[in-house]
Amino acid sequence: MSPRIKKPRARLIVTKLVSLKKELEVSKEIYESACDEARKLFQKSHSANQVTARTTPEIKSTAVEKRSHTASPHSEQEGSSIEDFEVSKQKSSPESKSLFRKIATKIHPDKIIDVEDEIEKSQKMAMYLLARSALEADDLISLVSIAMDLKIEPPEIPKERIKKAQNEISAIKKEISNIESTIVWHWFFCEEEEKKSDLLERLFGLMNEKHIRT
Question: Does this model's pTM top 0.85?
């Protein structure tokens, strides 16, 4: 049997990972918004003969993809039963399968059919779909996070799973740091008018250089 990590420490790591994933998602959205605003200002500052919307240079130093971790509450049939989902077909660990079953007993569509509050019902449906996706990916950490939200006692997590989560935490922190170190990020959040103007000029200079090279 794989060594286990004590539950309090495991819960802390799970909470950190979930929080950082949300922070990264928001950071990416803000970064995209900042890039869009900078592009518009760049276009506005140049005549139509110099640059058009189609030839505006890319200002991102690295590609930042939009990834959503939220499943649509309408992407699955609500009338399916717990038995219809054959977890044995998945390459999931016994821990993941067991925890998913506990989650399903609380928020499976059959269990929430009588919930009158449509917002609550939609949230639980979305949570259930997330749990199914986590099961298919054998993502025990995400399942534990969902279980914690539902006040379900999670199982002990194998040491190798915790190590993987810690590596993911480090990678996400690095990605957030890379985003926050860009000129466009500093310009977007700068509150000093003179410094903000200088940063924008630097940004325009980089955009011009890239435009000329392309």
Answer: no
